[in-house]
Sequence to fold (162 residues):
Amino acid sequence: MAKPVALLAAATVAAVAMTACATDYVAVRNEVTVERPIDAVWARIGGWCAIADWLKLTCETVSGSGDVGSVRRLNGTTLEAMVGRTAHSYSYWQTAGNMAGFAYHGTLAAEPAGPTRTTLVYTLFYDQAAMPSDAVRASEHQRLQTRFAGALAAMKQLAETH
Fold:
């Protein structure tokens, strides 16, 4: 009986510790309209390692086949695991890299905007509570906003010219 009680006590302590930690979740959302049908857009920019084309970095699939559970390595160091996928979207969690300590997640989604138009939406989500100051939090938010607005502009160009 001592083991179940000890496990219950440990679980309770862990739950209390987790709720005691301050969190400050932030979402960064960018979108752009592409003048192409959704299937054509997703075929051009939606592959698991297509990020190399529109964010100008290296990408290698470490494990999996581009479905949920797949892991990619960016620039030789950052690891991201796919945690969700639909026909025209995927979500990932950064497990190693400069944002991994902030529970960083991202979602790239293509949504139909009519028969010949597509809206691309890139949403980032992270916990900025551990960042050392308001100035760092604001700077990081702006960096991500700018970087992924640029990524969407690159995706738009790729999709509309191919």
Q: What stands out?
A: The two ends are 66 Å apart (CA to CA). Strands lie at 25-34, 59-63, 71-74, 78-86, 89-96, 105-112, 118-127.
